[in-house]
Design a protein that fits this description.
Largest sheet: 8 strands, parallel, barrel
CATH class of the largest domain: Alpha Beta
Oligomer: single chain
Number of domains: 2
Shape: globular
CATH architecture of the largest domain: Alpha-Beta Barrel
Structural class: alpha/beta
C-alpha cells in the first residue's frame, strides 16, 4: 500500500458512484429527449481525429433536450423548487468537494450544477453526472456524462500529487459501467473512444486528443464473451509449468500445470500491535514468518490465529486455533503477495503444500530506497551505476534463494516506484523502466522455470514508458484504488492498446472505518467496494471483456496499527490521511484489513472476520 502517494480528492471519487438511491429526488426539467440527437442541434466535425469539435447551431433546442444541470442548460436549475427549498434550508452551504462523499445526492446535484467556483466546465459536468447517478437518475446521468464527451473531451485537471486526470475518459467508463449494470435501460453506446496521445506523462502541453463520441442506440449492450477453445493461441511466455498464453483476439490467460489460474491474491504481512519499523522493532516482510510469541515453535499468524466470532475480544472455549493459512484457504485465496526478505521457506512450503497458496515474490528495486544503498533522504537514483548494481544484487539474491521452490508463481518488481517515494523514478522514468527491463532479462536468463515477471506500477502513470522500454516484462501490475465499481474500461483497454500485456491488479482495497459511520456501515461498504472491484477483475479475464486480467491482490489481510506516519503503534489511528474513493472520502491506512485484530489485547493471534472476508468466501469458492 502506498504510504504517501494516492490520487487526489479530485480524481479519487471518479469511479466511486456509491449506493444508488432507491428513492429518486424529483427533477424539475428532465429534458425532452432521453437519448439526445445531437445532430439536430449542431454538427460533429472531424470525428475520430485530433481536430474533433461539436459546433452548436440550436443552443436553445439542445438545452431543452438535455434538461436541467446539463450543458448548455445552465439556468433551469435555479427555477427548480427543490433547489430553492434546499437553498433556504442551508443545505447548499458546505464546501463543494464535501458533497462527493455525502449521501445527500440532491444537494450534491444542485451544488455542482450551479457552482461558480469550478471554472473547468468538464469537471463540473462530470461531478454533476456523478451526483445524478448516485441519486438514481441514470438516464440523466448518462446525458451529463455524454455531454462532457461531446463538448469538452479535452478537459484535463491535476490531482493533488500532480498527476493528470481526464474527466471525459472517466465519463466514458461510467457510461459503459451503467449500461452493463443496468441492461433494463435498453441502451448501448457504440464507437465511442477517447485516445490521449502522450497522456501517460505529467506534461499536459503535449497531450493530443483523438475523439469519437460514438452513438447511443436502442438495444442491450452486446455480451463481451469469447469461446477460447475456438480461438488460436498465437504466443506463449513462461515455462512448461507456469505459462502465459495469448490468443488471436488479444486475450491473455495464466496457466499453472496446464490449468487456467486466476490470481485470487492477498497482501499478507500480519504484525503484532505495538511493533513498528520506525524504531526497528518490526521488520515487515520477515517478522511474521519467524516471530513465535507463544513459544510453540511455529510462526504465530499463519498457524496460531483464532477467530473471535462474537467480537468480544475474549477467546471462548469454542473459538479454536485455526491459523491464517487455513482461513485463507477457506476463503478461496490461492496466492499471497510477499517481498523476499523473510527466508522461512518451510513456512511457505507448508502454505503451498497444505493450503494451496502460491507466492508472488517481489523485490522493491529501489522504492523507499530499499536495496539501492541510498538513504531515504537521498533516494534511489536509477542513473547511478553503483546503485543499479546494489539493486541487481538484491534481485539475484531473491531469485537464487527461491527459484527452485514450486510455490513461486511469478516475480514482481517494484511497488509503484513511478510515484517517486524515496526514489527518482518519477523524474527519471526512462532510466527506471530501462533498468527494470534489464532486471527482468537477468531473471529470465537465470530462472530455470522461466516464470513470468511483472512490474508493479502505480495506476497507469508512465504506461507509455513501460510499453516502450519493458519488452522483457511479461505482466503489467498496477496498484489501483479507483473506487467501488472497479477500475474502468479505460484501464483494461488502455493497457491492451498501449502495451499489449496482461494486467494484474497488484493492490486494491478499502478501509473498514469511516467518520460518523457505525462499524457495521463502514464494514458493509468495504465489502461492497471489494465486490465491485473483483467483479471488474473477473469480467475482464480471458474469455470476457478486454480479456487481459490475470486476477488481483487484496490489500490487505489484517489491520496493521503501525501504518500511519507518526502515529502510536499501540493505538488504532482514526485520522484520515488522504482523500479517496471511500465511504467518507478518506483513506485510513491502518484499517485496510478484511480482518481486524479487535482491540489489540490478543495480538497477533486474534482475528475478527469482516463482511468482506465472507463475501470473498462466497464468490471465490463458486
Amino acid at each position: 500500500m502506498k504510504k504517501n502517494v494516492l490520487l487526489s480528492f479530485v480524481i479519487l471519487l471518479i469511479f466511486s458512484a456509491g449506493a444508488i438511491s432507491e428513492e429518486r429526488f424529483p427533477l424539475y426539467e428532465p429534458g425532452k429527449e432521453d437519448i439526445v440527437n445531437y445532430e439536430k442541434y449542431g454538427q460533429f466535425q472531424n470525428v475520430g481525429t485530433r481536430d474533433y469539435y461539436y459546433r452548436i447551431s440550436d443552443r436553445e433546442g439542445l438545452a431543452d433536450a438535455v434538461g436541467e444541470g446539463i450543458f448548455p442548460n445552465t439556468k433551469s436549475v435555479y427555477k427548480d423548487p427543490g433547489y430553492k427549498r434546499l437553498k433556504r434550508e442551508g443545505r447548499l452551504e458546505a464546501d463543494l468537494w464535501e458533497y462527493n462523499a455525502s449521501d445527500d445526492y440532491q444537494a450534491a446535484f444542485y451544488k455542482w450544477a450551479t457552482t461558480g467556483k469550478m471554472k473547468i466546465p468538464g469537471v463540473k459536468l462530470y461531478f454533476t453526472g456523478l451526483a445524478l447517478e448516485k441519486g438514481g437518475h441514470l438516464n440523466h446521468a448518462l446525458k451529463a456524462y455524454y455531454a462532457l464527451i461531446v463538448h469538452f473531451p479535452d478537459t484535463m485537471d491535476w490531482t493533488f500529487f500532480h498527476t493528470p486526470w481526464y474527466p471525459a475518459q472517466v465519463a466514458l467508463d461510467r457510461i459503459h459501467f451503467i449500461l452493463k449494470k443496468h441492461p433494463e435501460l435498453g441502451l448501448r453506446l457504440e464507437g465511442a473512444e477517447i485516445e490521449i496521445i502522450n497522456g501517460y506523462d505529467n506534461d499536459e502541453k503535449n497531450d493530443i486528443f483523438v475523439v469519437n463520441p460514438g452513438t447511443f442506440l436502442r438495444g442491450r449492450p452486446k455480451k463481451e464473451e469469447a469461446d477460447l477453445s475456438m480461438i488460436e493461441v498465437i504466443e506463449e511466455r513462461g515455462g512448461d509449468r507456469i505459462t502465459l498464453r495469448k490468443y488471436a483476439n488479444g486475450h491473455w490467460q495464466l496457466l499453472v500445470e496446464g490449468e487456467p489460474y486466476l490470481i485470487k491474491g492477498i497482501a499478507y504481512a500480519p504484525s503484532k500491535i505495538g511493533l513498528t519499523p520506525s524504531n526497528g522493532s518490526l521488520i515487515v516482510h520477515k517478522d511474521w514468518m519467524v516471530k513465535d510469541f507463544n513459544a510453540n515453535g511455529r510462526p504465530d499468524g499463519p498457524f496460531d490465529s483464532w477467530v473471535d466470532k462474537d467480537r468480544d475480544n475474549e477467546r471462548d472455549q469454542e473459538e479454536e486455533v485455526v491459523g491464517d493459512f487455513q482461513l485463507l484457504q477457506e476463503m478461496g485465496a490461492n496466492t499471497i503477495r510477499l517481498y523476499h526478505h523473510g527466508y522461512n521457506k518451510e513456512c511457505l512450503s507448508e502454505a503451498y503444500e497444505k493450503y494451496g497458496l502460491m507466492v508472488l515474490m517481489g523485490d522493491y528495486i529501489g522504492m523507499y530506497a530499499l536495496g539501492s544503498g541510498a538513504s531515504w533522504n537521498q533516494g534511489t537514483d536509477y542513473t547511478d551505476s553503483d546503485q543499479q548494481k546494489n539493486m541487481m544484487d538484491s534481485v539475484k539474491e531473491m531469485v537464487e534463494e527461491y527459484r527452485d521452490e514450486p510455490y513461486i508463481l511469478m516475480w514482481v518488481l517494484g511497488n509503484e516506484n513511478n510515484y517517486g517515494v524515496a526514489c527518482n523514478a518519477d523524474r527519471e522514468p526512462d532510466a527506471y523502466y530501462q533498468f527494470a527491463n534489464k532486471v527482468a532479462r537477468w531473471i529470465k536468463e537465470n530462472d530455470p522455470e522461466q516464470r513470468p515477471v511483472a512490474l508493479c506500477n502505480g495506476d497507469v502513470l508512465y504506461l507509455d514508458k513501460f510499453a516502450r522500454y519493458c519488452p522483457d516484462i511479461d505482466v503489467y501490475g498496477t496498484n489501483t484504488y479507483r473506487g467501488k465499481d472497479g477500475f474502468g474500461r479505460s484501464l483494461w483497454e488502455g493497457v491492451k492498446r498501449v502495451a499489449d500485456k496482461p494486467v494484474l491488479i497488484t493492490e486494491y482495497g478499502c478501509p473498514a472505518y469511516a467518520r460518523n459511520r457505525t462499524r457495521e456501515e463502514a464494514e458493509r461498504w468495504q465489502a461492497e467496494y471489494h465486490r465491485g472491484c473483483w467483479q471488474d477483475i473477473a469480467a475482464n479475464a480471458a474469455g470476457y471483456g478486454a480479456g487481459n486480467s490475470l486476477g488481483g491482490v487484496i490489500f490487505e489481510w489484517v489491520d496493521e496499527w503501525w501504518k500511519s506516519s507518526g502515529s502510536n503503534p499501540y493505538q488504532h489511528n482514526k485520522k484520515g490521511e488522504f482523500k479517496g474513493p471511500f465511504l467518507d472520502g478518506w483513506l485510513y491506512e491502518e484499517w485496510m484489513g478484511i480482518t481486524s485484530q479487535g482491540d489489540g489485547s490478543d495480538s497477533p493471534f486474534l482475528r475478527q472476520l469482516r463482511p468482506a472476508y465472507f463475501m470473498y468466501k462466497e464468490i471465490w469458492n463458486k
